[in-house]
Design brief:
It holds the Pfam family TraG-D_C. Keywords: Membrane, Transmembrane, Transmembrane helix. By secondary structure, the chain is an alpha/beta fold. Helices cover 49% and strands 17% of the residues. It folds into 3 domains: 64 residues; 315 residues, Rossmann fold (3-Layer(aba) Sandwich), CATH 3.40.50; 147 residues, no CATH class. Helix 12 packs parallel to helix 14.
Length: 616
């Protein structure tokens, strides 16, 4: 009995806010009633007190109906939709000063089960719209997307997310032109205004994105913080060594070997190439030289004999007291020829040095030196095209910069330096011109950035936050970056990743399992218009299920078997609950430009709109 009363009370409170506003007609009828009542007092001798009491009651009901009609009218979506809004950097800066521990996400409202109910009711009302409203429908259809979605709540406010929650990383999904890049503008500008390090990796090289980041630096009178890298404009670009930061030499070999095309993970050419790279890297570290792409290419092409001479000399001199005299004799005996010197030093190491001071890294280089040169050339053939692309023409000086004590190049930088100086680095990859090279550069830079994150994670003290923005992430994502997503929070690195579909991750990583691994490491989602059905389904599956009210029309007829002319019928309505997804997946493909659905802060659902940032 108690349950029945509770259900009746709940059903009684249900109201379709998108029904026609019948209250308007009711107000006119009661107003006529009051007018007639006053007339009866004058012409028909109706008692004045009685007329006043009845008129007052009618007036109170008119006020009640008027308020109810006003409330309903606020929920009626505007047929013309919402025009684009603009916000200048000054207004954004002022807003941030009032909310310094929050991230601003535009304006909108928190989406709840109540809004799902309104959405369903609105769709039902429009499916039953009369012909007289056809003109209004044609006007609405001229507006791009389901513009009425943002009108499901009359009370819209600024949306914020605690900055602490952004350390769980953010994924922005949307088709071309839906608003991903303009969303980047808003988030990047806020990070710059907070005086935090910003790294932007943009495969397609969007000029507006670059200019907006530079504009934000100039706005706070810190134009020197902006750093620009782009293979297509080497004269304006800084130089970055993508092998500058690493914790172990084996990382360098893994980074470059990962760029070798391979159909299977057990490719012998890829494995041999990685081994050869590792041997050269270890030899360079023995002689105290930092690896670079040009250096690795040089020793792979010319052979390891020169490096063998340098490495054995450096190691033997460190451990053998009288090695200088021995080396002088070897030089005379070999007539200063590198190949002969390498052979003599090879023999000297294993006879005199290795028994007392063995070094496995040096022995790997010596083993490669003795390898058959014909077979060696064939095995590293798949590695050479990658190194050749990354060291040819203008890319050579950009990715393998040289700086000496006599000539220090101010344009040489790396991710550790960018982070330490709170710089804003825009890195365009020019993938539209050369997708293969752009993808390779992006992959190497992400690996280098992951190494910096490892240092910060292990040794960092009071690390300042670092904001990493990656547009079209599927073109550059790799295994090290997945590790960065997994462990970047401990290094205070906030990653914001943008893509068009989730299938792009699967295509890049080679498996759907790895794509899900990427998504599993991201806690916040900003969903703009998406057209891919699988991506829509994945997003919808992450929305919770809610219960809504549904009106069921029951119509029945009954014919008597004995009396054919006798018939009975019934008609009624009943209210029942059904379980639906909080936000329908089909509407994800109808979001207007710059409008999004967000899942942030552990499951909070937001419906928001973003403005376009301007200078003035």
């Amino acid at each position: 009995m108690k349950k029945s009363k509770w259900m009746q009370k709940k059903y009684a409170s249900y109201q379709n806010v998108y029904r026609p506003i019948y209250e308007h007609a009711s107000i006119w009828l009661w107003a006529i009633f009051i007018f007639n009542t006053i007339g009866y007092v004058k012409y028909y001798a109706l008692p004045f007190i009685y007329a006043m009491i009845v008129s007052l009651l009618a007036l109170l009901y008119i006020i009640y109906q008027f308020r109810q009609g006003i409330q309903l009218s606020q929920f009626q979506p505007q047929g013309e939709g919402h025009s684009l809004t603009f916000m200048n950097v000054d207004a954004l800066s002022e807003l941030m000063t009032k909310h310094d521990d929050l991230l601003w996400l535009g304006e909108g409202f928190e989406w709840t089960a109540e809004h799902t109910q309104r959405l369903i009711d609105f769709q039902r009302m429009h499916s039953k719209i009369s012909k007289s409203s056809q003109k209004s429908i044609e006007k609405e259809s001229s507006t791009f997307g389901a513009h009425w979605l943002h009108g499901l709540d009359a009370k819209q406010t600024y949306l914020f997310q605690p900055l602490l929650h952004t350390e769980g990383h953010t994924l922005i999904v949307g088709t071309t032109g839906a608003g991903k890049t303009r969303c980047f503008d808003t988030l990047i500008t806020q990070a710059i205004l907070r005086n935090e390090a910003v790294i932007i990796i943009d495969p397609k090289g969007d000029k507006a994105l670059c200019n907006n980041a530079k504009r934000a630096c100039e706005h706070i009178c810190a134009a020197e913080r902006f750093i620009y890298f782009h293979p297509g404009f080497p004269e304006h670009s800084v130089k970055i060594n993508p092998l500058r930061n690493f914790n172990r030499g084996t990382e360098i070999a893994s980074r470059i070997a990962a760029l070798i095309p391979s159909e299977t993970g057990a490719d012998p050419f890829k494995a041999f190439g990685q081994m050869a790279l590792n041997n050269i890297v270890q030899g360079l570290l023995i002689i105290g030289q930092r690896p670079s792409l040009k250096t690795l290419r040089y020793y792979l092409e010319s052979g390891p004999e020169e490096l063998v001479v340098k490495a054995v000399y450096a190691y033997a001199k460190k451990n053998i007291i009288q090695f200088n005299e021995v080396f002088t004799e070897i030089k005379v005996k070999a007539n200063n020829q590198k190949m002969k010197m390498a052979h003599y030093l090879y023999e000297y190491y294993f006879s005199e040095v290795q028994p007392h001071y063995p070094n496995s890294d040096l022995e790997g280089l010596l083993s490669m030196f003795k390898h058959d040169r014909t077979h060696y050339s064939k095995m590293v053939a798949s590695l050479m095209p990658v190194l050749n692309m990354l060291t040819s023409s203008e890319l050579g000086p950009l990715l393998s910069p040289k700086s000496t004590l006599e000539h220090i190049d101010d344009k040489i930088t790396d991710f550790a330096k960018i982070i330490q100086t709170n710089s804003v680095a825009y890195i365009g990859l020019d993938s539209l011109t050369d997708a293969m090279v752009g993808s390779a550069i992006g992959s190497l830079l992400l690996s280098d950035l992951t190494a910096v994150a490892g240092d910060r994670y292990n040794y960092g003290i009071e690390n300042l936050p670092v904001n990493i923005f990656i547009d079209e992430a599927a073109e550059v994502i790799n295994d090290p970056f997945i590790q960065l997503l997994n462990k970047g929070r401990g290094a205070k690195m906030r990653c914001v990743v943008a893509t068009q579909t989730f299938a792009d991750f699967a295509a890049r990583t080679g498996s759907e399992a790895k794509a899900l691994q990427v998504l599993g490491n991201i806690n916040n989602f900003l969903i703009f218009r998406i057209m891919d059905a699988k991506t829509q389904q994945y997003v919808a599956d992450n929305f919770p299920m809610v219960r809504i009210n549904t009106i069921i029309n029951d119509i029945g007829t009954n014919n008597h078997a004995e009396e054919l002319l006798l018939a009975s019928g019934s008609a009624g309505k009943r209210l029942q609950e059904e379980e639906v997804t909080l936000f329908p997946k089909d509407l994800l493909g109808q979001l207007p430009n710059l409008e999004y659905i967000a899942m942030v802060s552990g499951g909070k659902i937001l419906k928001g709109r973003l403005p376009i940032l301007t200078t003035h």
